[in-house]
Design goal:
With 390 residues, this protein is of the alpha/beta class. Helices cover 53% and strands 10% of the residues. It binds fe (ii) ion.
Length: 390
């Protein structure tokens, strides 16, 4: 264990240091509270053995500062004091101290208590490692679902993946979004249209104005259906809420709940904005030079002014335009795993085959060759130059 001893009495400091070294620990010394705090800020410390009364920060103040630290692992705290009244001990423990030893120090008791502290610190480390593994598995599972959507419906999966990338970019620039919310927004964006799986393409390909009543109802149900599917997992409930709200509009005319303005959580507004923008670019109905004009048209209606500003600031259309200058046509036989498609691959009939920004692997290259062999696509695919091996 890395143990910091803080005591203004040089004799006690020296005695405790030599004993703790003898017990196999790495010892750091501080002769007052401020020096102790500086050491904690610049060195990984597992445990602090601190005197209560010290110049500068006293033991309790030091303890309170340590408990406010968010970035470090748990630091086990043993307070040493001549004060042994029940009220003093309670006050110490209430400040976040883990254990309390009174002077004169019984070294055998101190040794035993340090061993207890070491067990707790080790348990906390193991617990944190498990949480990291569980969190990583959670996000891998989400990405697996997202990939599965892409296997079932390339166009839909590609849209969700690109929407997630853009929503995360926007979230990073939005002052109201904390770091902890970004994975929730990414999760919801990756799965935001999962409720569309199973709705016939003949309906999804229609303009909203062309849909008859039943078709519109079925289409609109995808937001609530998607939220219900992913909301069955407890940890996914915050993301499910954003999925439910990704078609709400700033003017209150969206669905399913007709929320408007600030009633719509920022995460849902970001996903909605990113999804609308991705459709503008990739559904090809609007030319890139008219994206800004179209965004201004929905400003204050579908999207809040702030969302439109964010989209214009990021200017994906320009990035996309630049990327298009950085692409090259490749024949199917020359494709290699790792290359990234620069545009949606479509059949000669216009039907969808593979999404833009798909990283090719052996399976996807075989799929393209198969479509070519049956005469459905040409022998050439647009590839991003940046993904080509030199
Ligand atoms: Fe949607």
């Amino acid at each position: 264990m890395n143990i910091l001893i803080a005591d203004d009495d040089p004799v006690t400091l020296s005695l405790l240091s030599s004993r703790l070294c003898a017990w196999g620990h790495t010892v750091h010394q501080a002769s007052d509270g401020n020096a102790a705090w500086e050491t904690i800020c610049r060195t990984p410390i597992d445990m602090v053995v601190s005197d209560w009364i010290m110049p500068g920060l006293d033991g309790l103040q030091l303890c309170r500062r340590i408990r406010e630290l968010k970035e470090t692992g748990y630091i086990y705290l043993i307070l040493i004091s001549a004060q042994d009244s029940k009220a003093d001990i309670v006050r110490g423990l209430e400040s976040g101290v883990d254990d309390y030893i009174t002077k004169p120090i019984d070294l055998d008791a101190l040794h035993a208590r340090i061993e207890i502290g070491a067990r707790i610190v080790n348990l906390e480390r193991r617990l944190n490692r498990k949480i990291e593994i569980i969190t990583a598995n959670h996000y891998q599972t989400i990405r697996m679902f997202s990939r599965m959507m892409e296997v079932i419906d390339d166009e839909l999966g590609g849209h969700c993946r690109r929407t997630a990338n853009l929503a995360v970019q926007m979230a990073g620039r939005h002052p109201g979004v904390g770091d902890a919310e970004i994975p929730i927004i990414e999760t919801a964006a990756l799965l935001h249209d999962i409720g569309m799986v199973g709705i016939p393409k003949s309906i999804l390909n229609k303009r909203r104005t062309e849909m008859v009543n039943d078709e519109r109802q079925l289409y609109q149900s995808h937001a609530a259906t998607g939220a219900r599917i992913i909301g069955e997992i407890e940890i996914m409930k915050p993301a499910a809420l954003l999925v439910r709200m990704h078609h709400e509009q700033y003017n209150g005319k969206g669905f399913p709940d007709g929320l408007g303005g600030d009633e719509i959580p920022i995460g849902a507004q970001l996903i909605s904005a990113a999804s609308i923008y991705d459709n503008m670019i990739h559904k090809g109905k609007i030319t890139l030079d008219r994206i800004a004009e179209n965004l201004q048209r929905i400003r204050g209606y579908q999207l809040s002014p702030q969302m439109v500003e964010l989209l214009l600031e990021i200017n994906v259309a320009q990035q996309y335009d630049l990327a298009r200058k950085m692409e090259e046509e490749w024949e199917l036989n020359d494709l290699q795993p790792g290359m990234v498609t620069a545009a949606n691959v479509r059949m000669k009939t216009g039907a969808f085959v593979m999404a833009a920004d798909t990283e090719l692997d052996d399976h996807s290259i075989d799929k393209l060759k198969h479509y070519h062999n049956i005469g459905a696509i040409t022998n050439k695919v647009l590839i991003r130059k940046s993904s080509m091996r030199s």
